[in-house]
Amino acid sequence: KLSMLVQTAREALQWLSDRQDADALRRAAALLGGIKNYSRVGTAKAWPEGKTAIQQALKTLREPFFGKENAWLSMGLNEEDARSARALAALRAVALQAFAIYEARKGEAHALDFDDLETRAVSLLEDHPSVRRRWQEEVRALLVDEFQDTNARQARLLELLDGGRGVRFLVGDAKQSIYRFRGAEVAVFTRTEGDFEAAGKRVARLNATYRAHARLVDGLNDLLEPVLGRARYDWEAAFAPLTSARDRAPRIASDAFIEVQLAAGNKGEAMPIAARAAVNRLIALFDQGYAPGDAAILCRATTSFAAYEDALDAAGVPFLTLAGRGFFQRPEIRDLTNVMRAAADPTDDVALVGALRSPGLGLSDVALYHLARHRERLRQTSNVKRHDLWTAVQTPPHDFPPDELPRLTFARELLTRLHGMAGRAPVADLLKGYVDETDYLAILAGAGQSRAVRNVNKLLADVQAAGLVHMASFLEWIDLARDADVREGEAPVVAEGAVQIMTVHRAKGLEFPIVVLGDITYAPRRGRGVVIADGWMAWKVPSSSENEAKPAFYQLLQRMEARKEEAEDKRLFYVAATRAEDHLILNGVVGRWNKGGWYRWLKLALPELDAFVQAEGAGEQICRLGMAGAPVRCVRVEDAAAPRRTYTPETDALAPPPFQPKLLAPFEPVEDALDEDARQREQEPERRVWRIFPPEGARAWAPAWMVGKLAHRAIELERMPDAPNFDAWLEASARGLGLSDPGMIRNALWRTRRLLRNLAASALWAEIQAADQRLHEVPYAYLDPDGVPARGTIDLLYRTGEDWTLVDFKTDRARDRAEMEAIIAEKGYDEQVRRYAEAVRALLDVTPRAVVCFLDVAGEVAWSVISVQ
Which CATH number characterizes residue 806's domain? Predict the structure, then answer.
């Protein structure tokens, strides 16, 4: 056996030495394929040159053909390759046709996509030397942050702007390149780094971190070094140890700042147990001085969020999910959707039950049972076999609970009104009407559901912005979002103080005192029919037979792609782990089929982890990482050992942590000088009237600021009351600001029309209309003489001959000119227009006439010229 094995190896080597073509590779692969189990052939004495040395030589010889990375050398073409080749012509024709249609549609719309922007910018500089020189003269320095997330085209654009002058200053970290799905190529970064070094340019490696304390950094180095290792290809990122430059100790002492929590078993059953253990650990840290706002749970994918959301919810810990289980799956959004479905079609029993049972209408299960039983009686006693629940709601049974009859009557009348409005009024009006009449937001707030209140307001704003009128369009929008599993982010928390749940990609660039890496055994499914890698494409032609064979070229690209995806998974793990400032907790489920994902990388640093998890019962021990032996607390979780804890927040606010050391001398920020319009535009959320509706029995009166916005919008468009379709346009504009109450809309329209009629009849408007040039809503930004950034928008700037005039329109009411002048001085309108005049002077090098124009001074327009000298 030994002599045959050696002879086979020599023959394979001979083939590889004499020829280097495909036939030689196949013959060598066939010979080497016969060398199996060579480690068991013969005793050590039977190997004349030493068994270990020859075994290693055979392993090296077989590796290019049968190793994990290079097994493709032993592949031969098969029937599937032939089928794929025959399909190539048809596939190419379809692809070219689709591309032509896409290009034509872009041309019709005069649109460019992001690829166009990149390729055309590069072509512009490559093909036109004069343009290239112009931009190179313009660009004195290029600072590019996050350079690891660029692609080859973007890097080429930077090269062209540089022009060999050495003006590029590139900042990035190859270990944090995690946007390959967006086209980022880490190879661009590594190649550019090599080019810089080869050209003698400066490459500075910044290995100091001000984020994590020294003991955590030591542990992270030991954890991540075996994961990243050395880079053998330009699409891999080599490990580089970090050193801690932070002089602030963690808030609490601990024997281990890295913790691994693992539950064993089926993921469906064990994941809630693991999540509960993570939440229990967070609560313990909160009890020792941390707060919920100090913690974040980071997952590989949004599908892992649900277990942690449920565990936090059950423990009463405030949390915020950033693009979580789905905005459209939230209970409050489901409730409102059910109400809209029932309003559109009251005979939809499922939607009607959801609407009646929701907090807004509040019928009990007992009441619904009586209605359902009454419906069945109606079906049995009537010739109409398809009685729906709505019939029972309209004619409730005699035994219906009397204490719930008022709620049923209210629900019936409200749904009837909404049904009558459906299809005629905007969906936003229906939603707002339901929310107002049921005091839905107050109900949610009273139940402590501040998160739900934010989400309801977000839905109202989104529907208003979408401009949906037909109920069918709204419901289709909701259904499409749910079916496509759209991860719409929830409304952001106004104040800090909640555990944040997000993906690692969302967390990039962020940092938290406590980081939980959730569901660490999650592994994405990556099967696909078409594989594209490095400009090559391969595909597996679908077959109706049970043939599972794959084309050899498809397998080749699939393996190349898998290696690159694995390299990015390692970088993703690096980014996730390095978000922690004080504590890192790795949490998940390990089972027979759940040993992939980040758990694979964890085992490289903690090889004893499998044995620890497989032991019986709950347990805890301190494990050691790497050569330095950084401690890791390993916890084996079982259901009985993970009881539910409840979070009770402290009433006294925690003292703020001491300031971290600064990299640079403190910078005193200068607040921008903004005009009132700019402040209104930049406030979050944008000013709306969702929370404004007339109290019952009160006179409908629209807010003054909204009338002012409508008047300014009309002036900007020079749309006066005598313009065609003016009333329809003005009403649509009012609804666009979120106004839905009919009385308030009428009031806003009447007051706005009155102001505009005043203006249209004035001598000032006649002068404006006769101007040679008119510029409305003119934005400006400049540094004032004191070096303060000033920004704002001028209502109107017009030119007559060589003279410029700026006008600032005001909707304040004044009884006479004296009161107008007093308001101007009191509210600082004179100083405001002087700032506008200074902006015009700085940007146009002219001194304008400055006018403050009041649209309602005793029912007329009046204006004051402000001295700007």
Answer: 3.90.320.10
For 132, the 3-state DSSP assignment is helix
Provide the domain limits for residue 741: 677-760
pLDDT over threshold 80, residue 393: yes
Task: Tell me if the bond preceding 685 is cis, omega within 30° of 0.
Answer: yes
Residue 688 sits in the same domain as residue 625: no
Structure confidence by residue, pLDDT tens digits, 461-485: 888 877 777 788 888 877 776 655 4
Q: pLDDT of 79-116, one tens digit each? A: 788 888 888 778 888 889 999 999 999 999 899 999 99
What pLDDT digit, counting tens, does each position of 250-301 carry? 989 899 999 999 998 888 889 999 999 999 999 999 999 999 999 999 999 8
Half-sphere exposure of 675 (CA within 13 A, CB side): 24
CB-count exposure of residue 61 (10 Å: 0-12, 13-18, 19+): middle
Q: What is the spatial distance between Cα 337 and Cα 325, in angstroms, rounded to a whole number?
A: 17
Give percent of the chain with pLDDT exceeding 70: 80
Q: Which of 483, 514, 536 is the last residue of a domain?
A: 483
| Counted domains in the chain | 6
Output the DSSP codes for 288-356: TT--GGGEEEEESSGGGHHHHHHHHHHHT--EEESS-S-GGGSHHHHHHHHHHHHHH-TT-HHHHHHHH
Instruction: Give a three-class secondary structure readout of 608-677.
Output: CHHHHHHCCCCEEEEEEECCCCEEEEEEEECHHHCCCCCCCCCCCCCCCCCCCCCCCCCCCCCCCEECHH
- For residue 97, tell me if it sits in a domain: no
Q: Which residues have CB under 8 Å from 393's CB, separation 6+?
A: 346, 352, 356, 371, 408, 411, 412
Reduced DSSP (H G I as helix, E B as strand, rest coil) percent helix, strand, coil of the chain, to 5: 50, 15, 35
Q: Which residue is it, tokens 């002599």?
A: 3
- What span, in angstroms and rounded, lies between the C-alpha atoms of 141 and 161? 9
Residue 707 falls inside a structural domain = yes
DSSP labels, 341-389: HHHH-TT-HHHHHHHHHSTTT---HHHHHHHHHHHHHHHHHSS-S---H
Q: Are residues 332 and 463 in the same domain?
A: yes
Residue ending a domain, among 206, 228, 248, is 206
The residues, any chain, with a CB within 8 Å of residue 21's CB and separated by 6 or more, are: none
Sequence-distant (6+) residues with CB within 8 A of 130 are: none
Tokens 């005193």 belong to residue: 668
CATH number of the domain encompassing residue 378? 1.10.486.10
Is 321 in the same domain as 331? no
- Token pair in block for residue 535: 């400009």
pTM over 0.85, yes/no: no
pLDDT-based confidence at 679, cuts 50/70/90?
Answer: low
What region, left, alpha or beta, does residue 753 occupy, with left being phi > 0 and alpha being psi -120 to 50 degrees? alpha
Could you report the per-residue pLDDT of 798-816, keeping only the tens digit for each? 999 999 999 999 999 999 9
Nearest alpha carbon to residue 149 among 186, 118, 114, 117: 186
Encoded amino acid at 208, one letter: A
